[in-house]
Amino acid sequence: MQKLTLDDIHNNYDYEHLRDQWYKTVNQAYKVRRIQLGPHLVLTFLNRDILTYQVQELTWAERLVEDEEIQSELDVYNEILPDKNELSTTMFLEIPRKEDIKAILRIFTGLTAGEKLWFEFKDGLKIPAQFDHRTPGDTISSVHYAKFRFDEMGKTKLLDISKPLQLVIAQKSYHYAIAVNEDLRYSLVADITGEEK
Q1: pLDDT, tens digit, 9 for 90 and up, residues 149-168
Q2: Is 0.85 surpassed by the pTM of this model?
Q3: C-alpha distances in angstroms, 125 versus 63, 89, 119, 136, 170?
Q4: Of 37, 123, 151, 197, whose CB is crowded by the most CB atoms within 10 A?
């Protein structure tokens, strides 16, 4: 995907008038691109529109006006933006009860080391998540970013909507799999083929 630039970000005055419409548009994308994997893990697949919105909201909330400040944020989000033949996701741990936090975090410790999360096609082909190399494998936080890199075979299978695809996690006692629904699949195909901006 094309990297985010300063030209993509409205000044705060203009954004005030666009904010409600942006929220409605991006909120619809969130609904399509969000998938729950078991009771505690939620993934949202990111594209250029979603990341532009996140930078725009941050700029507005913190009242950033200097190009250098905004560019610094763009640099961070551009690292998350998927490159060619990649999908990018943010993962959020949902732990409703405060008393469960420590126990559940222990389960997820080590998730970023090794192949514990992957896409899997019916024929057994797996596309594992690759986590930010700066995240130590023996730690866990409530939010993580990961990318899935598709080779040509994987890309061909992804583009063939007739081939079932599921998302799988096998992390200690946390084992779940969920089929990727049609709406999300088409959205991911758009990312891979470059139909998204």
Answers
A1: 999 999 999 999 999 999 99
A2: yes
A3: 46, 20, 8, 27, 16
A4: 37
